[in-house]
Specification:
By secondary structure, the protein is mostly helical. It is built from twelve helices and no strands.
């Protein structure tokens, strides 16, 4: 992982902690939903993304590969530090666009088409074929509004939405299809839904690490 990747990861993780989303468990998702005018995702978690075939419930294989590569640049993985791929962010976005975020399907289609056209015109390759450094150049151009060919959504709008959904997929409850194996929660030290907190747990100022961590899905099965 480069220093650039480490800086980006630190910024995103710091944003989660600073927003108080970890403590509430759902605060980040609610904040992002307000930005995208979405509703809590109700897609069933058993519809896991078919990574082996490259097809999901909304994305085709090419779009899935592009989203997987893009989100990994936003939240890159490293040894001992899960990234977007590890957390199943692609699966989360795929399920969301087939469910509660269905109103954003055309937004994504147009954004992905513009991204592909820009990369083809600029580098003669698709985004997923570019080296990581070149992918970062593309993302920087999008953020700065210098990526030609975007109309609606603009490059900034598409980037901001993808960043928001990457954060949701990293840190929302796994019941929504992301945060695989509690990768995001483990990254920021959020304990999940623990059946019992001891007095010592409540009084400690140390990061909580006891296992197991359980989410909404597991709690629903117990009730």
């Amino acid at each position: 992982m480069t220093k650039h990747d480490e800086s980006r990861r630190a910024f995103l993780v710091g944003t989660v902690a600073g927003a108080g989303a970890v403590a509430g468990g759902a605060g980040l998702v609610q904040q992002a939903q307000a930005q995208t005018q979405g509703q809590p995702i109700a897609a069933a978690p058993e519809h896991a993304h078919a990574a082996a075939t490259g097809f999901g419930v909304f994305f085709n294989s090419d779009d899935a590969a592009t989203i997987a590569a893009f989100t990994e640049r936003l939240m890159p993985g490293a040894p001992g530090k899960p990234g977007a791929r590890d957390a199943g962010v692609l699966n989360y976005i795929d399920l969301a666009l087939a469910g509660a975020y269905a109103d954003l399907q055309d937004f994504y289609r147009r954004g992905l088409a513009a991204l592909d056209a820009y990369c083809s015109a600029t580098y003669k390759q698709s985004f997923m074929q570019l080296a990581a450094a070149r992918q970062d150049e593309v993302i920087t151009a999008m953020v700065e509004g210098k990526a030609a060919g975007f109309t609606w959504p603009t490059s900034q709008q598409f980037f901001n939405t993808l960043r928001t959904h990457t954060m949701e997929g990293m840190f929302a409850d796994p019941v929504y299809g992301g945060n695989k194996d509690f990768a995001g929660w483990r990254l920021v030290g959020f304990p999940g839904a623990q059946p019992i907190f001891s007095q010592a747990d409540m009084e400690s100022d140390q990061q909580f690490t006891r296992l197991p961590m359980t989410g909404l899905q597991a709690q629903a099965r117990r009730s």
